[in-house]
# Entry
Amino acid sequence: MAHALTLDIERAIGPAFRLSAALALPEEASVTVLFGPSGSGKTTLMRCLAGLERPDRGCIRMGEETWCDSAKKAWVPPQARRVGYVPQEDALFPHLTVRRNLEYPLRSMGRAARRARIVDLVASFALDEFVSRRPDQISGGQRQRVALARALAPRPRLLLLDEPLNALDAAVREQVRAELRRSLVSINAPTILVTHDRTDALALGDRIAVLVGGTIRQFGPMTEVFGRPADPCVAQLLGVETVVEGVVTSHREGLATVRVAGVDLVAVRENPRLGPVLVCIRAEDVVLHRPADGRGSARNHLPARIAWTRPDGALVRIGLDCGFPLAAVVTRPSVEELALDVGARVIASIKAPAVHVIPREGMDAGPRLTQSAVPRADASRSERPASGGR
Amino acid sequence: MDWTAVFLSVRLSVATAGVLLMIGLPLAAWLTFSPRRWKVVVEAVVAIPLVLPPTVLGFYLLMAMGPHGSLGRAFESLTGGRLVFSFTGLLIASVLYSLPFMVQPLCAAFAGVDRRYVESSWCLGVGRVSTFVRLVLPLARRGVVAGVVLAFAHTVGEFGVVLMVGGNIPGQTRTVSVSIYDDVQALDYARAGTTAGALLAFSFVVLVVTYSLQRRSPLSWRTP
# Structure
């Protein structure tokens, strides 16, 4: 399989930390989220890709080009890589207006071509309102748009975004997130986006690479990684076991109806946009009943069949099939009292506030069954790098 | 007031500040951005005039620029003229003596430019020299202004080096500070007082104009 970007690098940061990451991005232009806790080496990895730091060992290849290869002493400086890099806190030049910031990388272009490019960028990122203001005179969300537009101005081959939404407060964050996803879908370059926020990761990414302690533990499509974490550390970090695609079909009085694989779920959400979403449910929020029991106050009651069970300390993790795969976690005594064996029929109740809905642009419309909560030995693991034990 | 001396001082100071700007920009850029360890040695050499008595610096320059000194001989074989007791010699001495006053504000200003801006510029495909000219210099403009003003003012006020290297030739090497010294030696206190007062007023005006041009004085308490 051809890869757009392959990297396999090591870099020591201080005496105690070592980044040792391997990753191969598939050729199609998509958004890869680099997800991990603070101090896991996300930013160092991005800086190595941008050419701002040299790995101690290893190589980075972009298409046919070798950007860095310690064995052959190959090195391409950042100026020649054509990477759009937006660091944390955007780095817009404070002494230049928005327009001059956009023009900055286009000096070598002809006058007419440059003007056309600026007009194009200003229109597609809706910057005309504040194009003659300086960066300290516009809002955080506007800065974010300008930073992205400037990074894309010279038409980069790879886009790197380091915590693009971090500087924004919660109120504007959601709106900017939706705008960002729309922009990322429309551009024609592979993107790597760093975040430690689960909602950002789910809303913005197509694939996710989980970086813990300097190594990439798992890499794959979003729903697959969330549904089948490679190890307990990744599972704990991701925290959400069920991630499935759905469509918001209607909403009323603060409650949204989401259709997932033919099943209607009720979620709490003010004024959602109708359309494709990701539905996230934590295993801890799923309560299991025998079919005969009363309904209780929870809004969602899903007839389900137990597909698998797996003991996990004092708890038992249970995979359900209720039209879509759903993960639950219950205590051992409950398993015995309710006779929760593989094949048993149960009712899964989920309170409406526990059904998290994350709007997502650029996803196929219509619900599609995903294989998130079902562990399968035969699953294609071709996209996972030799993680961990390199 | 000795107007010849005044014009000579202004001429010398403008020339010194100009030459220093041309030397200081690349030198300060190298000192700030180079990863070399031994640049501290260069830093120390640049800063020597701050701690050395002007007479010591003047003595060595007199030796070097004299007819038997290496600098003096080289200059004489090239141009046929003398370096000591000439305006050119005075200019070379002033440039060396005021070097730290130009380089240090520049270094401080360059170091104050956020690394993120410079790196962003590189990633946008702009080369190192171009980044310096188009990004670092505009962001460090306060430091450039400060360096020019300090180098200019420091040259107007220099005395020891001028006396050692330049002597006291009217219209050629007799600067304002030397002329004041002469007047005092001749017990012409009135004339010395006028020149001194003019020099004081001039220094004050230059600083006020500079600070107001910089919009924010270095002492202002910035609102976040």
